[in-house]
Amino acid sequence: MTDPKKTRGRPLLMTPAPSMAICSSLDDLARLLNALGPLYVRYSRGPDVDASEQSKDGESGLPLPGLSVNPLSPERWWTRPLQHWLARQLMQYRHLEARDSGEFAWVLAGDEVARGPDCEPLLAGVVPIADVTEQLLNEADQVYAAVFDRGALPASGKGDAES
């Protein structure tokens, strides 16, 4: 049996950096993304806990080959400001913080090795990059509320793909 902490020969989590950067604003996060390339956000109990536990699909109980994340790099079709994309990505799983489970947002880099059950990227070879402050999450929430129709679904018959 292979080591559950490794995927295709790569550990799920690399040794954490001595200290992670602190992101306190959408502009901080945008600068970090522009400087370092593809980054992701994860809500969990942090890199140290993630290094010692196997990620699992909650519904099936199957082990996942990487850490479930949300991408911070916008898709090519995105034409709005980068800060709008970042706000949206940060807000998608913020509800995980509210579960009183000790989960918080942090930024990481790594190798996409698969897709999870919600089609989210799964990363191995993870490198922790930055802590996300409450100030940043509050700013993201304000931007998200101001520029998006929170929770709206596409209208049927408007050319949108249907599942």
UniProtKB/TrEMBL annotation:
Tell me one Pfam family matched here. DUF6098
According to the record, the residues making up region (Disordered) are 48-67
**Basic and acidic residues bias: start-end ranges:** 48-59
Put simply, this protein is called Uncharacterized protein
Report the source organism. Answer: Microbacterium faecale
